[in-house]
Specification:
Blueprint (H helix, E strand, L loop, with lengths): L4 H13 L9 H15 L8 E7 L6 E7 L8 E7 L13 H11 L2 E5 L11 H15 L1 H4 L1 E11 L1 H15 L8 E5 L10 H5 L8 H11 L25 E8 L3 H15 L3 E10 L12 H15 L1
Parallel strand pairs: 3-4, 3-5, 5-6, 6-7, 7-8
Antiparallel strand pairs: 1-2, 2-4
Length: 313
């Protein structure tokens, strides 16, 4: 594999900036650093028919969500992607993925509902999981208000958000198919907290997401180390992946999470007996998708993900 030159430039920019590693920061400091990178790297939000904020009902209180309706959607009841942002369950916010969600909506012709789930360490596991499931159920119940078709719901997310999307599918299965989820879009997802794959060892340092940073995220997120074995944290640990929706799983070639994402895709295809598309974006690093201003491959990648979503729904 060859590292994408734009991704290499981003890594060099981070090195020259001398930013302290996440594991040396407090969560508020890490959030400020994350926001600074996103402000530099993200494209402007493209034209779109509607962006509107709502509050979903959840077991821990209201959950901020943001609806995106694509260009030329009119008043049609659209399929919808419920999207969970990345950031190790500690970082991330709705504005950070405005451009990405709007691009996904335009590329897919689907509505997108972005979920601002509760963050750790202020809200420990499983509160993010609870918010993710509750917000997905809320979208289904409030389909008419949102202008979406409740029979065509997908879930998706990047990194920790991909983890939450996978877990929501498992929770919906446990609840007898409520809400009904037709597709999952998992973007370099976290699937197993063991951190013991070959890619975790090979890319432990130097490729934006590091092994020490990932360990720090788990310490912020979980109450005890034993919770790493809970399938709501590590969906790979679920006893079975049968009866789950079809999936598109994208991994990045230079990412510690690469192997666990690919192993999850393989197991899902084997046990759920549903179509699973696995795409390794060979030259990329973890977290590149919202960096369209710095990494040219980000926008065509979103177009490809949107096309997959459109075909599935």
């Amino acid at each position: 594999m060859t590292l994408d030159p734009d991704a290499a430039n981003v890594l060099e920019m981070v090195r020259k900036a001398g930013r302290p590693p996440y594991e040396s920061m407090t969560p508020p400091e890490a959030r400020d650093a994350y926001r600074a990178v996103r402000d530099v790297a993200a494209l402007p939000t493209p034209p779109i028919d509607l962006i509107k904020d709502f509050a979903a009902d959840g077991p821990h209180g209201p959950i901020p969500v943001r609806l995106y309706r694509p260009k030329n959607a009119g008043h049609t009841a659209l399929p919808v992607l419920v999207f969970f942002h990345g950031g190790g369950w500690v970082l991330g916010y709705l504005d950070a993925l405005d451009a990405t969600c709007a691009q996904l909506a335009n590329a897919s012709g689907c509505a997108v509902v972005s979920v601002d789930y509760r963050l750790a360490p202020e809200n420990k596991f499983p509160k993010a999981v609870d918010d993710a499931y509750a917000s997905t159920a809320w979208v289904a119940v409030n389909a008419k208000t949102l202008g979406i078709d409740p029979t065509r719901i997908a879930v998706g997310g990047d990194s920790a958000g991909g983890n939450l999307a996978a877990v929501v599918c498992l929770m919906a299965r446990q609840a007898g198919g409520k809400p009904s989820i037709k597709y999952q879009l998992l973007i370099y997802p976290v699937t197993d907290a063991a951190m013991d794959t070959p890619s975790f060892r090979r890319f432990a340092q130097g490729y934006l997401l590091t092994s020490p940073a990932m360990a720090w995220f788990y310490r912020q997120y979980l109450n005890t180390p034993d919770e790493r074995r809970d399938w709501r944290c590590s969906p790979m640990r679920a006893a079975s992946l049968a009866n789950l929706p079809p999936a598109f799983v994208m991994t990045a070639g230079f990412d510690p999470l690469r192997d666990e994402g690919e192993e999850y895709a393989a197991r899902l295809a084997r046990e759920a007996h549903v179509p699973v598309t696995l795409w390794r974006h060979a030259g990329q690093i973890h977290g590149f998708l919202p960096m369209g201003k710095l990494i040219a491959a980000a926008s065509p990648t979103i177009e490809k993900l949107g096309a997959a979503l459109k075909a599935a729904l």
